[in-house]
Structure formats: C-alpha cells, structure tokens
C-alpha cells in the first residue's frame, strides 16, 4: 500500500482531498508544503498531495516555486475539490459574532471570507496559521470565545461546533491539488478522471521583442486550448520570469514535440512538468 503524505495536521482541506480520493489508512501529515514535497523526493513517502491553486485566491506560490526552484517532481494527477469554509467554535459558546475577539486560520481561508469578516466581525483580530486544521487545533485548546475558519472535517476532528456555515464570499470556491510521485503506477485515485492536462515550464529568451506572443502563437495555430498561463520570477534578477502553461489535452508525439521544437528555435527553454488526469470531486 502506497504511503501518502499531505499538508496537515488533521482537518485540512488537503486531508479532505486525500481521504476523498484515496483508499487506505497509510497517510502521513506534514507541517509545511516543502516538507511534504521533500518527503516524496527523499523516498520517505510514495505520494504527496499539496494545494496548487484556489479559485478565489489564485496560485499557492510556495508550491509552484518549490517545485520549480528546489525539487522537480512530476505531477501525476490533479484533484479539484469544492471548498466550504465554516466558522468553528468550542462547544457551549453562546455569544454573538461581535463577541469573538480572535479568529484563527490559514491566510488563504481568511482572505476567502473577507467580506463576511468585514461585515460581521470587524473588530476581531485575525491570526494566521499554517493550515485550517492547525487553526482548529489551536481553538480547541484555547479560550472559549476564540474561533477558527475551517471545514466540517476539522470541526469533527477537534470537537468544535459549526457556529456559522459557508462564510466564504463566493459560492464557486474550489481548490486544485496536485499529486506528486516518482512512480505513476502507485497513484490510484478511486474516481473516474474527467479530463487530461499537460503542464509546461517555459523560460523566454532575454531582450527578445514579441517572445511571449510567439510562444502563445505556437499553441494557437495548432488549436491547443490553454487553461492557464502564469508568470513567476526566476529569482535571478528583476524582469526575469518563467511561465507555467496548462494545456487541456494529454501529451502526444506530434503536437507537443512540434511546440517544443518551435519554442526552442526562438531561444526558449521548455520543460514538461507532467501530463496527468484531472479528477473533479464532489463532497
């Protein structure tokens, strides 16, 4: 049975994604995303699941930067999970929202609930934690009037009550999680894939007018549909960027080699980060 690692502790959305997507109990939590990625690279675990992008807050930058600059692991699958944020309190709390002095959660979760917090809890102090699960853990052992933002799993894991359901600002809130592994055969998701996708890492030549336009044109005239293009700094100086491009189709031996050859002729560097199935999971 494969050892599966995830961003923990118990009660995180990553744990929820892992429980929903994989059978078995051989699951291990990690405090940070880099720790989970390193564990896959070092052979401590077989599969790592980490968040990549949220529909409201955008890319989880530490995931992208760590996979590009520190540890190059192939993406074996993508899991898309709906995100429902609830306000969690200790059992017995009977006060009003305005009486909660402190709210704990991950920075992304707090940002996803910005309007609710602004309108109903403007005086509460916001405390950032490493995960929503960690926030629930802290509140479970803290003062009676503290609150956390997290999911139903976190409430169950740490014995908290859901004081207010669905406090996220936008209903269509989803997070993409990537499944990392060195061996594709051990990745067994218990759902049917809805699509396949290929991710590429592209760096542009310096001082080349129109380079990005020509990169996109290489996909466009081949009628290859791009679902995402994002730039991130190369960390080699101002103005130096790499691009992550997601193509909504699996890698083949005709179109993708053609794109790669065309871009390399322009002076670009092209790396295939992975071609993988996409699983859309309804909770």
Set down the secondary structure blueprint.
Elements: E1 4-7, H1 13-21, E2 27-30, H2 33-41, E3 47-54, E4 58-59, H3 61-69, E5 75-82, E6 86-89, E7 102-105, H4 107-112, H5 114-120, E8 125-128, H6 132-140, E9 147-150, H7 152-158, E10 161-164, E11 174-181, E12 195-203, H8 211-220, E13 226-233, E14 241-247, H9 255-265, E15 269-280
Parallel strand pairs: 1-2, 1-3, 5-15, 7-8, 7-9
Antiparallel strand pairs: 3-4, 3-11, 5-11, 6-9, 6-10, 12-14, 12-15, 13-14
Please tell me about this protein's structure.
The protein is α/β, with parallel strands linked by helices and 283 residues long. The protein has three domains: 4-83 and 173-186, 3-Layer(aba) Sandwich (D-Maltodextrin-Binding Protein, domain 2); 86-164, Periplasmic binding protein-like II (D-Maltodextrin-Binding Protein, domain 2, 3-Layer(aba) Sandwich), CATH 3.40.190; 195-276, ACT domain (Alpha-Beta Plaits, 2-Layer Sandwich). Helix content is 27%, strand content 32%. It has nine helices and 15 strands. The strands form two sheets. Strands 1, 2, 3, 4, 5, 11, 12, 13, 14 and 15 form a ten-stranded mixed sheet that branches. A five-stranded mixed sheet has the order 8-7-9-6-10. Helix 1 (13-21) links the parallel strand 1 and strand 2 (27-30). The protein is globular and about 65 Å long.
Overview features:
about 280 residues, D-Maltodextrin-Binding Protein, domain 2, ten-stranded mixed β-sheet, five-stranded mixed β-sheet, alpha/beta, 15 strands, Alpha-Beta Plaits, globular, 9 helices
